[in-house]
Amino acid sequence: MNGRKLRRWRVFSALAVLLVFALWFLDLAQAFPIGVFTVLRYIQLVPALQLALSFSLGGVAALLLLLLSALVFGRAYCSFLCPLGLLQDLMSRIRAWIRPRKRYPRQKAYRMLRYGMLLVFLVSLAAGSGVVTGLLDPYSWFGRIAFHLVRPPLTLLHNLAAWGMNSLGSFALNPVKFHGMAWAASGAAAAMLALLGVMVWNQGRQYCNTICPVGTLLGLAGCKALLRVHFEKRACTACGLCAAACKAGCIDVKHKTVDHERCVVCFNCLPSCAEGGIRYGRPQPATTDLTRRDLLVRAGSTVLLPAVLKDPGEKARAKAVRLAPIAPPGALSHPHLWERCTACHLCISACPTGVLQPSLLEYGLGGLFQPVMDPLTGYCNYECTRCTEVCPTGALQPLSADEKKQVQIGRTRFIEELCVVTKDNTACGACSEHCPTKAVNMIPWKGTLNIPNVDNSICVGCGACEYACPTTPRSIVVDGNPIHRVAERPKEIGEKAEEVEMEEFPF
Amino acid sequence: MRRRELIYAGLLTGGALALPQWGRALGHALAPGIPHLAAVKGGEAEVMFDRAMQALGGMQAFVKKGQKVVVKPNIGWDAGPERAANTNPALIARIVKRCLEAGAREVVVFDNTCDTWNLCYASSGIEKAAKAAGARIAPGHLEGYYQQVSIPNGVKLKEAKVHEALLESDVFINVPILKHHSSADLSIAMKNLMGVVWDRRYWHRNDLHQCIADFTLWRTPDLNVVDAYRVMKKNGPRGVSVADTTIYKMQVVSRDIVAADAASAKIFGSDPASIGHIRKAAASGVGRMDLDKLDIQRISL
Known about the structure:
Helix content of chain A: 40-55%
Mean pLDDT of chain A: 89
Distance between the termini of chain A: 87 Å
Number of helices of chain B: 11
Shape of chain A: elongated
Oligomer: heterodimer
Number of strands of chain B: 12
Structural class of chain B: alpha/beta
CATH topology of chain B: Rossmann fold
CATH class of chain B: Alpha Beta
Number of domains of chain B: 1
Low-confidence stretches of chain A: 302-322
Structural class of chain A: mainly alpha
Low-confidence stretches of chain B: 19-27
Number of helices of chain A: 23
Shape of chain B: globular
Strand content of chain A: 5-15%
Distance between the termini of chain B: 63 Å
Largest sheet of chain B: 10 strands, mixed
Largest interface: A-B, 48 and 59 residues
Strand content of chain B: 15-25%
C-alpha cells in the first residue's frame, strides 16, 4: 500500500472512531443499548489497565492486545484509537485550514519530562489514585471535554430544534432535561482544551510527546516495532518535507532517523515525499541509539518503582470522610472508586435521572471529579443499572438488577423537627411515596396524621426520599456508606396478587 | 370606547366564553335517564369501560367531532402493569380508540411522572398501547411545558403551572388508578390531577389535602374513569411488589370527580369522609360524596 492510501485509510478510520466516541458521550436520548458501551473498555489503554489491575481476564487480554499492537505497528493507537489524539488531529486540520503553509517544527525529545510523567502515572496506578491517573489519562480527558463542553451546547441545540418542531406540529424529537453545568469540571475541561489548542497550533502532537503517559508507554513498547516509519536512505534527498509534515516533530532529516518513541504513526509524512525516501514497513536492521542511562531510567520507571511503592493512606482516607458522600452502586467502596475511577464521566452521561454528578471535594481532593450521587438533582432509579454497565475501568462493577436492589450505597436519616408533618401538622409523605423498598414508611402520629419512619435494614440509599422531600433544607437525608453494604430484601414481597370478588357494590 | 360599550363588550365576551360550559351543564341536566355515576364489576377493564359509557350516553356525549382530547392516566412510576402503580394500558388504549371514533381531532396522553418520564412511559406499557390506538404521547418532564393559571377561590393553592396540552384541550378525560397513598391516604381521581401541574412540592408543603381539593376549583375533568381492576392495597403509591396488589375487577365512571373518588374509596374499604381531600372538595361544592342520594347505575358482568 502506498503512503497516500495508508494516510487516507488512517483518516477515514480515525473519523469513524472519533464519531463513535463522540456518540458514546453525546447520546442525549440515551437510546444506545448498553452493549455498545462495553466495547470501549477493551480498546482504551487506561481502562484496560485498570481492569487488568483488578484481575479482570478481559482487561488483561485487552491490555496484552494493545501492547502487542504497539510491538507490531508502533504507536498506531495514538492515531487510530485515542479519542484525545483524534481530537488533536481535528485541531491540526483546522490549523491547516487557517495557515496552510505553516510547518511543524522539529520537537525536542523531552525524555526526562516524558519518563517523569510516566513515572507519576505508574505511581498513581500503584498507589491507587484514580484521580491522578484520570488527570493523566487521555481517554478520560476526552470524556470530560465531550461531556462538559460539547454536550451542554448540543443539548441546547437539540432542545431548540425539538421545541421548534413541536411548535410546528411535529413531535418526532423530545427535548431532554439538562441537569446543570458542573462548573469546576467544565473549567478543567476548557483549560485542557485550551492547552491542547496552543500545543497543536505551535507544535502539533506536543501534548502526546510531553505529558501523555499512555503515549510514552506505547512509545517504549513500540520503539522497535515490527512495522515502522523509516528512511530509505538511498532514495532520500534530505529535502525536509517529511519533517515539515510531521505533527510529532520526530523526524531528524539530517541523520535520516525517526524517533519511534514519539512517532504516532499518522502517515502524514509518507505522501509528502515524492522520492519514496520515507516508508512505513519493516526497516533494515539499525544500531541502537539508546544510552545506558536511558535504559536504566526505563527499567526504573516501568518495573521497579510501582513494585516498591504501596498506598499508605487508603484506610486513613476512608476514615477521614465524615459526612460521607454517596458513591454510585457498583463502586464497592470509596477507596475502590478512588483507585479505579479516572473520572471520564461516561457513567454520568449514561445516567437517566441526573443523580450522578461530578464531585468537587465531596470525596476530598483524592476523588476530584469522580461521580457522586446528588439527591438534589435526581435519585437513583431502582431498576436501573446503566452506570455499572458502561464503566470502562471497573471502578463501577457491573451489577444485575437483582443484585443492585440489595446494594446499600447509603443510609437514611429522618430529621423530625424539619418535617412538614411536625412543623405544620398537615399530611405529607412524599419521601415514603418515592421509596422503592418502603424503608421509609408512614406510621401513625397525632390524630389522623402519619409520620415517616426509617428502617435502614432495607434502605438502599437511592436518595428518592431526599429528592422528593418538599422542605428546604431537606428533612430526610441520605449519608453515603464509605463501604457499600448489603441491604435486606423488603418484607412481604411476592409475585402473586390476591383476588377478591365483591358480591355487592359497597355503595 | 365609552364605558357603556366596554361593559357590553365585556358581558358579551364573558357570555360567549361561558357558553360551552352552560351548554354542557344544560345538556347534562336535560338528558333523561343518564345516571350520575356508573360502576361496573366483573369484566376486563376495557369491556367494563364500554359498558359504563353505554350507561352514560356513549362517548359522543363527551367528545364532539374535531375536538382536542386529553387523556390523563397515572404513569407515575417505572413499574410494569402487574404492579398496579400505573393505569391499565389496555383501558387507556380503549378510551383513546373511543375518542377517535367519536371524531376527536387529536388525543393527547401525558403525565408529569415521579420516576424518570421515558422509563415510566415505557415500562407502564401506556406509551405503546396509546400510540397503537392513535394517541399522541406528550412528555411532561420540563417546566417549559407548563403555564401559570390562577385559582382565585383556592384556600391554599392560588396558582399552579398546568401542562399546555391540557390548556389547549377541549375535553379532559381523567383516568386514575385506585391506590393506597402514603401522603394523601388514597390516590384516585383528584389526586391524579397532581400529574398535570409542575410544582408538586408546593402542594406537599402547604396542606396537601387542601391543595388537592383547591385545584378542582380551576377545572374539573369532563369525565373520570377510575381503574379499580388491580388495586394497590398497601405501600402506595409506588408499591414494592405484586404482593401489594389485589384484583377487584371494578371500575367507576362519572362526570363528578368527588362522587368518583367517594365510590372508589368505598371499594378500597375506606370511608370517603375520612379522606381529607374528598371531604374538602365536597364541602366546596365541586361534587358530591353523598352516594346514597345519587343516581348510580350498578352493572355486574
